[in-house]
Design goal:
The structure holds 3 protein chains of 3 kinds. Chain A is an all-alpha fold. Chain A is built from 7 helices and no strands. Chain C is built from 2 helices and no strands. Chain C has helices at about 5-10, 15-45. Classes of the chains: A mainly alpha, B mainly alpha, C mainly alpha.
Amino acid sequence: MIYIKLSLPNALQDSAMPSATPPTTPHGINWFKYSSPQAFFPVAGALAPCFAVLAAVLCVVGLYIGFFIAPNDAQQGESYRIIFIHVPAAWMSMLIYLVMAFWAGMGLAFNTRLSGMMATALAPTGAMFTFLALWTGALWGKPTWGTWWVWDARLTSELLLLFLYFGFMALQAAIDDPRRADKAGAVLALVGVINIPIIYFSVQWWNTLHQGASVSLKSAPTMAMTMFTGMMVMVFACWAYAIAAALWRVRCIILERERRSDWVNAYLEAQK
Amino acid sequence: MLAVMRGVIVRDLTLAWRRRSDVFTSMIFFVIVASLFPLGIGPEPKLLLAIGPGVVWVAALLASMLALSRLFASDYADGTLEQMLLAATPLSVIVIAKVIAHWIAANLPLVLIAPLLGLQFGLPADALAVLALALALGTPSLSLIGAIGAALTLGLRGGGVLLALLVLPLYAPVLILGSLAVEATAAGLFAQPYLLLLAALSLGALSLAPWAVSAALRISYE
Amino acid sequence: MNWGSASEFFAMGGKGLYVWGSYAVTFLCIGIELAMLASRRRALNKKS
């Protein structure tokens, strides 16, 4: 067996704070090295700006490809260019829900505070992307199909996903004790994850039986390579942005929840 | 274990019987909501026939959901729920028993009077039978999923509306399949696939939900 | 390059409202999210 010793690179070590990582044994990987809020706080602080810059750069590149290099679409004209934000937002909304449920589950299983905080931090960003997917979907539907709202299987499932996000956030907001809020939200998120395939399947069936396959935002223009590239770059831009926003938010949550501890008070004093 | 289940079911049904008015208010709510739709939309028979299955199902969903707060509330208030948490019998077993009793008291009346509401919308006789059967197959999963929501929101402020927000999106597949079953029958097609799927959802909920409800109850009690 | 002139770019072949409506709301939402995060952080710094 190969043993690996991990240690914080010097750049990430905040010398103003006492060492927060649990002592590593000489052998084996300490999987919980960053699982205390105090240990993760500086890591998040260092990573978030990197992801934010990455997101901005990728966004510029992606939109440039999307608007200036990708050609006009024969059927839909220029309105198809909404795809460069609609598809990334939709994919992010689903990915973030899965990651949120994952961390919530980890928090339930290992009783780690930080996992629950991460799930709480991800929810608003996920809800925002879901809303954007719905909004851009509606604005795409109007010039293409003539109506603002289309009961397309995917848009309807997105709408239900938005309700699932709202339910998660509302439940956590209604519970005062943060640990109970984390665990209750975790149960709800896991129940939601199991339900998402069921919801999607039944909505798809409902849609095809009622409307036929005529109306579907799935029929994106047959993707020219440039369109596909632009879209994928935007996907990664949104992904990097989501990570940055979640890391910034989890830092706020850590400071709020741990405000009674010495390290937070020392840190906030140093900020003044 | 079966003795405990029978004891819990008998106890809950006795308590529900002593508060018969709760059951009747649920039923009357069901009737009122279903009757409001024609008032809002207009009495044209073809239109009512088209929306009838969906309306009855939505009304049943809402009535079922309103009854959910009764599932754990009184036991939570007087401390019986805490005893159930401490009991030797697994909590999931007690939860299944409570949900069975709740289904009999809250959802079975809806199943029985739904055909009458279907008549209001002009549904044909075979569609009425399928409506009752679909509700009978679908409401167990409504009770089970709703029990998860009720356990999560135990004792919280803003309880009823929060419960609705949590639980209604999860009800969507049951609603879709249930109303498709009735519409298919009204159109002369087979309802069997939808009924089988409803049964599958209920069985799936029966196997998974009690565990989630137990976890949620323990979380609410910490 | 796809566009003959800046005005063509903004018109988007007549679909300008939809395309720019989408992107405008996107950047607005991102801006709101970041602003809310910043104010949350400022409140924390101030409260200590």
